[in-house]
Design brief:
Helices cover 36% and strands 14% of the residues. The protein is α/β, with parallel strands linked by helices. Helix 1 crosses helix 6.
């Protein structure tokens, strides 16, 4: 509209989510935390690693899985950080997943999805994770705040605040939120 387009000429086409994700059965018993997306500095994955470090110091049992296509230089930085924090047995890195079958399997092994981005217009991964029955935690980006209602359909935390993220992860473990209906 700001560019002069008439409102009756504007159509919003919603993002697509595979129907199979709504059928995901979460048989998880462990506290598996998932980051799924582009492994790039804008995604602020080091905030998630720092939060896992805080929680591991509290002796909280959890596993982190960072999955997606990676920018090599950033991936090396993250792996070095994991090694420096002594989290090699708690955090694993996975490659890009493309098929619905692989994606459904990945979501079915997770309990919590964390999206710690510094900027996110609309995180389709948030809707996918909700559809798969995961508890979702997002930084307070435009996308995160548009989709998640804090403490009702997921959890929100301030960008770059690993202490608050650690608190939200701990809360999500104790009080999971299944927002599958919201995703529908």
């Amino acid at each position: 509209k700001n560019l002069g387009c008439k409102e009756n000429k504007i159509v919003v086409i919603p993002n697509n989510i595979e129907k199979e994700l709504f059928k995901t059965k979460n048989g998880y018993k462990e506290n598996n935390i998932l980051f799924f997306g582009r492994i790039h500095p804008i995604k602020n994955i080091e905030c998630l690693i720092k939060a896992i470090k805080i929680l591991s110091n509290k002796k909280l049992q959890l596993n982190g899985n960072i999955v997606g296509p990676a920018e090599d230089k950033y991936l090396k930085k993250l792996k070095l950080m994991v090694r420096r924090f002594g989290l090699e047995n708690k955090i694993q890195f996975g490659k890009q997943i493309n098929s619905t079958k692989e994606k459904t399997a990945m979501y079915s092994k997770a309990k919590i999805l964390v999206l710690p981005s510094r900027w996110e217009a609309f995180g389709i991964v948030i809707i996918e994770a909700m559809a798969a029955g995961l508890t979702v935690i997002s930084s307070k980006t435009n996308g995160g705040t548009e989709i998640i209602e804090d403490n009702k359909t997921g959890y929100l935390f301030e960008i770059d605040n690993e202490k608050e993220l650690a608190e939200k992860i701990e809360l999500a473990i104790k009080k999971p939120i299944n927002a599958r209906e919201k995703a529908k």
